């Protein structure tokens, strides 16, 4: 089957516009639901981050009042998967050619470090050139901003993308004091943003790029990635 790389942020704090610190980490559903579905489909999954640092759990994603009644399952699965994998791969050591898909979960971490991580940018540009499947959910699409080539061109300019919206950021209570908003920055760089209803599943495919709007989109996005990987496997087998 396929090899999939999940790239996590290494950030545990999001510095707000007024200088205050907002604790962050990986969002359990956005990591666990895709991982669970990838493994169930028979794929091998690796984890990587800047410096190989293991990001903590975003505690909001463990609160049923915020993350829904299934959040305990996602937390347990994520912690088990990460524990069994062991030390994360440092992004600087990752070879894009080793993977059939790269997946970028959210939490606010990607707007702290991944959006400007040069190693991730190199990896994404190489993956896109190879037509590797690239998936990103919620704040994960901010990580796509790192893919700027030596001529200053963003690799995903003009692509159709779903991402956590300004409206959802406002509803979550983190918009007013944000240093910048993901949806605005993506649009400024030339993304063609598409959106569904707040906090409802919404997935967009543009070629090899698959994006989901929010945590509820994590599972459907993983299903779309799995379907594409199966299509590619079948076509190669003919």
UniProtKB/TrEMBL annotation:
GO annotation, cellular component aspect: cytoplasm
UniProt entry tagged with the keyword Nucleotide-binding: no
A single GO molecular function term of this UniProt record: glyoxalase III activity
SUPFAM superfamilies per record: Class I glutamine amidotransferase-like
CDD domains, A to Z: GATase1_Hsp31_like
Residue ranges occupied by any DJ-1/PfpI domain in the UniProt entry: 29-218
Record protein name field: Type 1 glutamine amidotransferase domain-containing protein
Homology family: Belongs to the peptidase C56 family. HSP31-like subfamily.
Entries under InterPro entries matching the protein: Class_I_gatase-like (IPR029062), DJ-1/PfpI (IPR002818), Prot/Nucl_acid_deglycase (IPR050325)
Keyword list, A-Z: Glutamine amidotransferase, Lyase, Stress response, Transferase
A GO BP annotation: methylglyoxal catabolic process to D-lactate via S-lactoyl-glutathione
Gene3D superfamilies with a match to the protein in the record: 3.40.50.880
